[in-house]
Design brief:
Keywords: Coiled coil. This is AAA family ATPase. This protein is an alpha+beta fold. The protein is elongated.
């Protein structure tokens, strides 16, 4: 696998789209100061996944975008693309079948980076996984910048080991091992949390079981209460129906009596009219008829008295009818009160029965002691 070209657009000092072609055996970028050598190295590091702006000599990732000059306006996006020649199939992995591999990264002013492999959008990890063990990477030994030779010469054994492991292709497996260990740690933590949750749910299950038993007892008691209420209402309904029938019979009897009195009153009124006519005829007669007139007057007085009695009786019957209506309402109220008193008396009777048994027991004990 060989780097064939580098394309920069809007990256640092490369405002315009610029393509650098690398022929066989090109291993270095040289030139006068200020020509952009370090920016080329930064571009290679950046497109291969460098996430630290400090490593790219900037304060933030947006600093890699061309900021403009006195004669050029700033651009809104930076893009870098690396192309690798894989004619001899040295890449390995899923992309080994491709004769050419294009890796591209672009960033907008909002700081959001996007990665592409052969034109298809991908993750940063997909880019870094391709180059693991090949010596290529954003901070690998394959990219040597100014001052790096001195760091290699003065490197400590553990630092030198990192370069050697990368060259030997061991770093790929160490990364996989670290990821696996992290995954195992997360799995262990998740299992621990699941055990805690299971213990908590087990404790809640006992509480829910007790609550379920209490709810069942409550429903049974509620059903018994409903049955008792139905029986009480049925008894009250029967009592009310019986009293209603009795009142109906009494009202019918009073109605018949009222009709009879009304008929008698009509007869008396008719007789009174007849007597009045007779009385008038007697007045028109002479003195010999005085005795008959007195008798007629007496009879008229009797009839008037009888009429008054009948009217009084009629009024009494009317009053009796009204009183019966009132008694009906009062009886209904007394019935409800009697039911409440009956319940109270029943409770008192049970209490007195218990006290009576206790007193009889005490009396027997005293008798035995005597």
């Amino acid at each position: 696998m060989r780097l064939s070209s580098l394309k920069l657009s809007g990256f640092k000092s490369f405002a315009d789209s610029t393509t650098l072609h690398f022929k066989d055996n090109r291993t270095a970028v040289v030139g006068p100061n200020g020509c952009g050598k370090s920016n080329v190295i930064d571009a290679i590091r950046w497109v291969m996944g460098e996430s630290s702006a400090r490593q790219l000599r900037g304060g933030s990732m947006q600093d890699v975008i061309f900021t403009g000059t006195a004669k050029r306006k700033p651009v809104g996006m930076a893009s870098v693309e690396l192309r690798f020649d894989n004619t001899y199939g040295k890449l390995g992995g899923a992309y080994n079948a491709y004769s050419e591999l294009a890796v591209r990264r672009q960033v907008n002013r909002d700081g959001k980076s996007e990665y592409f492999l052969n034109g298809s959008k991908c993750r940063r990890r997909d880019i870094t996984d391709i180059f693991l063990g090949t010596g290529l990477g954003p901070r690998s030994y394959a990219i040597i910048e100014q001052g790096m030779i001195n760091r290699l010469v003065d490197a400590k054994p553990e630092e030198m080991r990192v370069f050697i492991e990368e060259a030997a292709g061991v770093s790929r497996y160490q990364v996989r091992r670290r990821e696996t260990m992290l995954h195992l740690d997360h799995t262990t933590q998740n299992l621990s949390r699941l055990e805690d949750i299971a213990a908590e749910l087990k404790a809640q299950l006992k509480t829910l079981k007790r609550q379920s038993e209490t709810a069942i007892q409550y429903k049974e008691l509620e059903a018994e209460i409903r049955q008792i209420r139905v029986e009480v209402l049925s008894f009250q309904s029967e009592q009310s129906q019986r009293l209603q029938e009795e009142y109906t019979v009494q009202m019918n009897e009073l109605g018949e009596s009222f009709k009879l009195v009304r008929s008698e009153l009509t007869t008396v009124e008719h007789d009174l009219g007849t007597t009045s006519e007779l009385f008038q005829r007697l007045i028109q007669q002479s003195t010999p008829l005085q005795s008959e007139w007195q008798q007629a007057e007496k009879k008229r007085s009797e009839l008037e008295m009888t009429l008054q009695q009948k009217q009084s009786l009629l009024q009494q019957n009317s009053n009796s009818l009204i009183k019966l209506e009132e008694q009906k309402a009062q009886t209904k109220e007394r019935l409800q009160l009697t039911e409440l008193q009956l319940e109270t008396l029943q409770a008192q009777l049970e209490e007195q029965t218990v006290q009576l048994h206790q007193q009889e027991g005490q009396k027997q004990n005293q008798t035995q002691q005597l």
